[in-house]
From TrEMBL, chain A:
It holds the Pfam family Arm. GO terms for molecular function: microtubule binding. GO terms for biological process: epithelial cilium movement involved in extracellular fluid movement; filopodium assembly; neuron projection extension; sperm axoneme assembly. This is SPAG6 protein. GO terms for cellular component: acrosomal vesicle; axoneme; extracellular region; microtubule cytoskeleton; sperm principal piece.
Length: 447, 316
């Protein structure tokens, strides 16, 4: 900070090229370390000098310059904007056409960091014509270059559908899809993340990604030993599944749901979250798909998740997914109830230390409105708060008038006694339900 | 005159008589008039009553017939309507029956096809089993690969260690540590030692500072500045036979700084180079003169032919 930047500045224009290179590397390392240093570097007006002679320099200098730009751009959008404003993007594009893979890697990394911050910067990167060159970079044999190019494409396409469309128009999807079977774990992470950022924006983009024949290769990623590969694979499937029932149907048909269920079972922690949400989205579309999820043994891992996980948002996601599965018909609600998950949900709902979001998701309303499986409802009678009680009594009042065996069971398990103990205002819905139940039994038993 | 007086006497009484008879007659007449009126009245009333009775009988008759007619007409209409409604109801019920069966069939077959759903779910679960199985195989294959890699690495390390410790091999006189005389057969390590070739002294890899140089020759213009002296070759190396030049001289010549022409020196992207680019195109578009005279062609031919004569072998 003691005027180092001012000292380094004239060295950048030195005659000897290795001095220029070393000065650039030094600036890069300074800027990399701290935000204020990066701002100091930008304020000292170094950037125009850095990039003015970039096309004629040798590859070491280009690499060092790319390192400096990336170190500055990674801290904040304002610094990245400063880089864009001094016209660095065109120079970087020229560097991207260089033959040396190290130079290309440094440049794509710089592009990635610039494009990461917000859509305008991404648009600037795209306008400079970087995307076709990045797609060419992906096809290079060096693994590190592929990784960085994939991560840059992912950063560009994550902001808006138009940017994703630009990336798709450059023909990126086919190359990304070809790299999914690659054994390198970090490359797979980036490729899957890029595809999921493309697919998340709209139905057409998701369909384009699916047409690149990623299924069933993507399912092998769900069995990878690397946690983040599994997470990104699950994210990709989730982004595809959430758009339309047809896409979800396609995923079910190719056995994706089974793979996702296994993946949830084998992971712990936040890595599970996209898988859980995938199941929720697939089940939400229609009752046939929900039944398919149930048939693929989707409910047990979700219950395990609810019980085991400590983080609120994962529990909320699991509760939401169970709600989506169980809300369609009585059959679905019965499957959910049989898995003995309703008491857990009730506990979460009643628990004072769970967050609002969690409580909202853990409302049993959806499931209970369709649940006619009385043995599962009985234990809930004893502990439920009033809002849930209304639903439970409502369900009982619907089923008991028609089923004699259930009536007998209801009395023997002490449910009738519990119902009598409930106090409800006359004329309210709850009172009507209680009356309906009482009418099913002869007077003596009621008393 | 007597008659007159008689009459006059009678006149007084006559007057009274006359008056009385007149009064009686008058009263009679009034009474009789009233009676006549009464009778007549009564009779007329009877007549009128009879007439009215007759009239009302006629009226009743007419009304009876008219109302009967009207009601019969209405009745026919009512019957017709009731019949129509009855027919409608019947048709409706039959239509409902048909629609009911059709809709049930259609929904059960095409929309909520339970059998198809069951089959589909079964197919899905079978497919899931397949996918799970294949994924399991894939995971196992990956694990095996990892294990193989580890094993190979261990083998390599073992072999390297054996080569390093070749001196632990047993000699004729002294048995080595792996070849104890109390054992029935030598240890596998002993066998490995016997097989392995002893390691020679590892030469330090001469990191030639010109290695990068050779790779990057198009972009570099002078030797890297950190080269202060020539690379040290081993002192006892066999000097190559023959009248070779001094290596320092050779290197000097090799690294004589390139002094390219101005055109070559400028890079492709510098402004003068870029400015130069369009001119060939411009030349093609607007050449100075287009007319090719015969002489001009002849000259061209001559020049070509002379070139050919001079360089016959190069073409082949």
């Amino acid at each position: 900070n003691s005027g180092v930047v001012c000292l380094l500045r004239p060295l950048l224009l030195d005659v000897v090229p290795s001095i220029r290179q070393t000065a650039a590397i030094a600036l890069g390392r300074l800027a990399d370390y701290d935000v204020e240093l990066a701002e100091a570097v930008v304020k000292a007006g170094i950037l125009p000098q850095l990039i003015c002679s970039l096309p004629e320099e040798n590859r070491y200098y280009k690499k060092a310059a790319a390192f400096v730009l990336r170190a500055i751009a990674k801290h904040s959008p304002q610094l990245a904007q400063a880089i864009v404003q001094c016209g660095a993007l065109e120079m970087l594009v020229i560097c991207l056409e260089d033959f040396d893979p190290g130079v290309k890697e440094g440049t794509s990394w710089a592009f990635g960091y610039i494009a990461r911050h917000n859509p305008e910067l991404s648009q600037a990167v795209v306008d400079a014509g970087a995307v076709p060159l990045l797609v060419l970079c992906i096809q290079e044999p060096e693994i590190a270059l592929k990784r960085i190019a994939a991560s840059t494409l992912s950063d560009i396409s994550k902001h808006s559908p138009e940017l994703a469309q630009t990336v798709v128009d450059a023909g990126a999807i086919a190359h990304l899809a070809q790299m999914i079977p690659n054994p390198d774990a970090k490359l797979k992470r980036q490729v899957l993340s890029a595809l999921s950022q493309i697919a998340k924006h709209s139905v057409e983009l998701a369909e384009l990604v699916v047409e690149a024949e990623i299924f069933p290769v993507v399912l092998t990623c769900l069995k990878d030993s690397d946690e983040y590969v599994k997470k990104n694979g699950a994210t990709l499937i989730r982004e595809i599944a959430k758009h339309t029932p047809e896409l979800s149907q396609f995923i079910v048909n190719s056995g994706g749901v089974a793979a996702v269920v296994d993946c949830i079972g084998s992971c712990r922690g936040t890595v599970r979250l996209p898988g859980i949400m995938t199941l929720g989205y697939v089940a939400a579309h229609s009752e046939n798909l929900s039944m398919a999820v149930i048939v693929s043994k989707g409910i047990p891992p979700l219950c395990v998740c609810l019980i085991e996980e400590h983080e609120d948002h994962i529990k909320a996601a699991a509760a939401w997914a169970l709600g989506q599965i169980g809300r369609h018909t009585a059959e679905h609600a019965r499957h959910v109830a049989v898995a003995n998950v309703l008491p857990t949900l009730l506990d979460i709902f009643v628990d004072t230390c769970s967050s609002e979001d969690l409580k909202a998701k853990a409302t049993l309303k959806n499931i209970l409105q369709k649940c006619t499986y009385l043995p599962a409802l009985e234990p809930l009678l004893h502990e439920a708060p009033p809002s849930i009680m209304k639903l439970i009594i409502g369900q009982f009042s619907k089923v008991l008038p028609h089923d004699s065996k259930a009536r007998r069971l209801f009395v023997t398990t002490g449910g009738l006694k519990k119902v009598q103990e409930i106090k409800a205002e006359p004329g309210s819905l709850l009172q009507e339900y209680i009356n309906t139940i009482n009418n099913c039994y002869p007077e003596e038993i009621v008393r | 005159m007597a008659a007159l007086t008689r009459l006059l006497e009678r006149l007084e009484g006559l007057r009274e008589e006359y008056f009385l008879t007149n009064r009686a007659i008058d009263e009679d007449r009034k009474r009789k008039y009233k009676a006549a009126v009464k009778i007549q009245r009564w009779f007329r009333a009877c007549r009128v009553r009879a007439y009215l009775r007759h009239l009302s009988k006629m009226v009743i008759l007419i009304q009876k017939w008219w109302r009967g007619y009207l009601r019969r007409k209405h009745f026919r209409e009512i019957v017709e309507r009731a019949y129509f409604i009855k027919k409608q109801k019947f048709y409706n019920e039959m239509a409902v029956r048909i629609q009911k069966t059709w809709r049930g069939y259609y929904v059960r077959k095409y929309i909520h096809n339970f059998c198809a759903l069951k089959k589909y779910l079964k197919a899905v679960s079978m497919n899931n089993e397949l996918v799970r199985h294949e994924l399991q195989e894939y995971a196992e294959m990956k694990e095996n690969e990892e294990k193989m890699k580890d094993l190979k690495k261990k083998e390599k390390e073992k072999k390297y260690r054996a080569r390093k410790m070749h001196y632990l091999l047993s000699t004729e006189q002294i048995p080595g540590i792996y070849n104890s005389p109390f054992r029935k057969s030598p240890d596998p390590m002993e066998l490995l030692l016997r097989k392995s070739k002893p390691l020679t002294h590892r030469k330090q890899p001469v990191k030639s500072p010109f290695a990068d140089e050779l790779y990057g020759w198009p972009t570099c213009k002078e030797p890297p500045a950190f080269v202060t002296s020539l690379p040290l070759l081993p002192a006892d190396r066999q000097k190559p036979q023959g009248p070779f030049r001094d290596p320092a001289e050779v290197l000097r010549q090799r690294y004589k700084p390139l002094e390219p022409t101005l055109r070559v020196r400028e890079s492709m992207y510098s402004p003068p180079a870029k400015a130069r680019e369009p001119t060939p195109r411009e030349e093609w578009r607007n050449p100075i003169h287009d007319n090719k005279t015969l002489k001009h062609c002849f000259h061209q031919l001559l020049s070509l032919k002379s070139l050919e004569k001079l360089t016959p072998a190069l073409g082949k």
